[in-house]
């Protein structure tokens, strides 16, 4: 059963997705966090393809804390630059922009992504 918090996040998520969309030149950087890990993807919404992905499990930080989020942000920026992508649209996926989400975004900016 969905909690009130989940329903609130879904409502915010739909509002965000109605306003932003990713293309091949400027993909959408979407973030998902679970209790055990944090994930980031670069998505081309016109084709429905994932261009690059990173998670805290592949970076070696097998937990979902701020340091793991920074590692994921740096890794997704590295993969994006290797794929020739320099600008993205940030999709916080309904989460509040603080803590893990903010540290992932800051690390991606430090890695060379512009958004």
Primary descriptors:
115 residues; 5S rRNA binding; globular; 4 strands; alpha+beta
Write a concise synopsis of the structure shown.
This protein has 115 residues and is an alpha+beta fold. It is built from three helices and four strands; from the N terminus they run αβββαβα.
Structure description:
This protein is of the alpha+beta class and 115 residues long. The protein has one domain (25-111): Nucleotidyltransferase, domain 5. The chain has helices at residues 4-19, 66-82, 100-110; strands at residues 28-33, 38-44, 49-55, 89-91. The protein has a four-stranded mixed sheet. A hairpin with a 4-residue loop joins strand 1 and strand 2. It is globular and about 40 Å long. The model has no long low-confidence stretch (mean pLDDT 93).
- End-to-end distance, in Å? 35 Å
User: Assembly type of the shown chains?
Assistant: single chain
Order of adjacent strands in the largest pleated sheet: 3-2-1-4
| Elements, N to C (H/E) | HEEEHEH
* Low-confidence parts: none
By secondary-structure content and strand pairing, the structural class works out as alpha+beta
Query: Whole-number radius of gyration?
Result: 14 Å
Beta-strand share of residues:
15-25%
Report the CATH topology name.
Nucleotidyltransferase, domain 5
The profile of the biggest β sheet is: 4 strands, mixed
Instruction: State the domain count.
Output: 1
Report the CATH architecture: 2-Layer Sandwich
Secondary structure: number of strands:
4
Shape descriptor reads globular
Number of helices: 3
- The CATH C-level name is Alpha Beta
| Average of pLDDT | 93
Family: Belongs to the universal ribosomal protein uL18 family.
Protein name: Large ribosomal subunit protein uL18
Keywords: Ribonucleoprotein, Ribosomal protein, RNA-binding, rRNA-binding
GO biological process, one term: translation
